[in-house]
Amino acid sequence: MTGTAAEPTPVPAVRVPRRRGTELALLVVAVLLPVYGYCDVGLARDGSVPPGAAGYGAGLGVLALLAHLAVRLRAPYADPLLLPIAVLLNGLGLVLIYRLDLETPGDHAAPTQLVWSTVGVALFIGVVFFLRDHRVLQRYAYLSVVTALVLMIVPIFFPAVNGARIWIRIGGFSIQPGEFAKILLAVFFASYLAANRNALAYTGRTVWKFKRLQLPTGRVLGPIVAIWLLSVGVLVLERDLGTSLLFFGLFVILLYVATGRTGWIAVGLLLAAVGAFAVGSLEPHVHSRVQDWLHPFASIDAGEGPNQLAQSLFAFAAGGLLGTGLGDGHSILIGFAAKSDFILATAGEELGLTGLTAIFLLYALLVERGYRAGLALRDPFGRLLAIGLASIVALQVFVIAGGVTGLIPLTGMAMPFLAQGGSSVVTNWIIVALLIRVSDSARAQPLPRERA
Amino acid sequence: MTKYIRRAAAFCALLLVALLVNASRVQVVDSGTYDDNPANRRQAITRFDQPRGDILVDGRAVTGSRDTGEQLRHERTYRNGPLYAPVTGFASQVYGTTFLEHAEDDVLSGTDPMLAPLPLWNDITRAQNPGGKVVTTIKAAVQQAAHAGLGGKKGAVAALDPATGEVLALVSTPSYDPERLSGTSTAVTDAWAELNADPDKPMLNRALSQTYPPGSTFKVVTAAAALDAGGIDDLDAPTESPDPYTLPGTSTSLANEVEGCADASLRYAFQWSCNTVFAKLGVDTGQDALAGTAKKFGFDTPGLKIPSPVATSTFDTSMDDAQLALSAIGQYDTRATPLQMAMVSAAVAGGGSVKAPHLVDRTTTDDGDTVASSGTETLRQAMNPGTAVQLRELMTDVVEEGTGANAAIDGVTVGGKTGTAQHGIGNTGTPYAWFIAWAQKPGDAEASVAVAVVVEDAAADRSDISGGGSAAPIAKAVMEAALSGG
Description:
heterodimer, A: mainly alpha, two-stranded antiparallel sheet, 4 strands, B: alpha+beta, Beta-lactamase, five-stranded mixed sheet, five-stranded antiparallel sheet, 17 helices, 18 strands
């Protein structure tokens, strides 16, 4: 974002263009594409445009417009790609859920998801409006971590749902507090590492006479490993392997970015290997997931019919290069969790490899914009926060997309924005709001003279 | 820190590449394996998503499709199922397809690429063509006459148009209603178990899939071989055959059921079905000549499809003379399907030319545009045209004043040959009564129908008269139906 304003004559402070018009134009596309998809589902199923198409388009449009106005008012320099990508992914998710609702007449998830999306956008606007400077968050590092731990511990006292204790049920609503904990942990990690990165980078002892492989001293390492162990421990108790993997990856990436020490990666990989082996062989729930991954068709050979992963692979394969078209696939055969964890299978079957690649690239672009903001910022906390939030999206997409396509063992997680799940969609809107905030700070700061 | 951020970004890019490579593997490279996995319901769902195309008899559908609203949406229905089961076979959601339903499945299910408006169109759009139609050569009146003629007996009828090879009737009794096997319910699995356990084997297509010892009807083939080989010039000359005839190299003596076979002429021997004369004639003609003629009629030729598969009729080619003598009268290892014997009769009627039998006139799209049509195809010349003329004369004599008098139709030239075959250990099985025949209207250049009837007849005795007694009236009814319809 630095080269766009190059001028021949040196000017003390050059600001980059705001690009709000670009954002608005992209938002129009981001609203129209899902509306088209919504109509396409109806045309494929009944041969007519669904009656709610206009209302749906208007609703999505109003949400996008309000978010855009908030950005225009309070974050005028924000990256113009972030909001359109979020709106497009959220809209596509609504279309896919609406499409799957047609197969389950007794269970309509799309209206609920639309409500949660509205809540998410409202929180997005709230964050953009009231968080004027991301550095404020640095002050609340320890409050964040305590809250995160509480959020993760609370579900243990609620009954397990499908083998995982990650839900709180109050009245008709179920909330996954672990989703919110992701943001809080990212804030804490960024804050702690920004404050202690020099200590972490330049102290330690050399092991095995390798100069590069220096392990940090226990004094510096202690608190952060303790937090990490605690959060991972809680997650293993909750049997939510995906989130555990996500936190671990986030921790290692931020540690490496903050310190530049490959030793951290070595330690991280070692811990991951030991942890994965121990959990994979000892914990039956996880063990069966690993077995399913290694032998996705074992249940077919055993005469019990295809399991969810096999059905998911069938769905992706049925999509081929171009897909069956929205509304014409049979991904509902996956059964339970078709709208949440396995939503990507519907995208793969009905939009094909082409559509799936487009979705992956949208996520990649979102992550890339986060990293770009991190590169442009100058304060370490802001940089680490941007990298952390973007990495959450990257890791989450990899863990769940890799799981449902048989690349890695399947772990229950929500595809950001696409999957059914209120907590997830709200969390992702907050992540995007924070990225908007840091990218605004990054692009609003005066360019250094020598680079102008 | 910038350097490390870039490296972390590179790591994220690596994750993206891994996802894309793996997605390409699942969706493109390995997709065929996943699509074809038997546990993947998609092919079945797609297959039954639209109504199956119909099979037509006389321009009228004998099949249908019922929308069940279930996951496998459409189930096959049949009008007059038991009557047409040997023609259509079944189309089950559990047990697959048989006979025409199987042979023309691509057309009926709509997957035949020829049904597409443009080449490769469906591969791109994933559109499914409506199921096409299969127009059969069956004549409803002939089929019904054959079915009614067999009644409650076990047996089969195959009727052909000798000039074209069109199959006019294909009947097997006892039959079954293929609709009972269409769906997926427990009633279907129960019906399947019941039909398979039934000792009468109702699902056996006796006209195509079952071979029988042809008995004396095979004497047509033996006579054709002898006449073609030149061993006999004059049908009325004595054949110098002893009665009884001792099988060569054995002390087994073969006798006749009728008088006057000693030294009888070929005409008399054919007319009254003298075993002694034909056993000796077979040995005199020789194994190679007899096997060669049998092969030209279609014996020992695997892979006949009409397009339903037809069991191979056999004539042994490595026998001693005693076995050859028995084979020449349609015993020992000689076995034929009813369709094969109808082809023998049709060849005689048609000047020796064996036309490819076919059950499908044409296949069309749902709109009626022709996809493929079958024309008349000559498989082989089974005998010299002169021999065919002589055999027509012999067969006509059988009906006019011999064992096949029951098949005579007023004002129509009818040729026939009776047969009875014993089987089982010590010939304890229910004997098979045979009749093969053809009929030609006066003034017509060609015969218009050839038919073979086989009946498992408890009342049949060792006499060939039984073939004329129980099978010839059925053949007569079938021919009458064919003549009046044509």
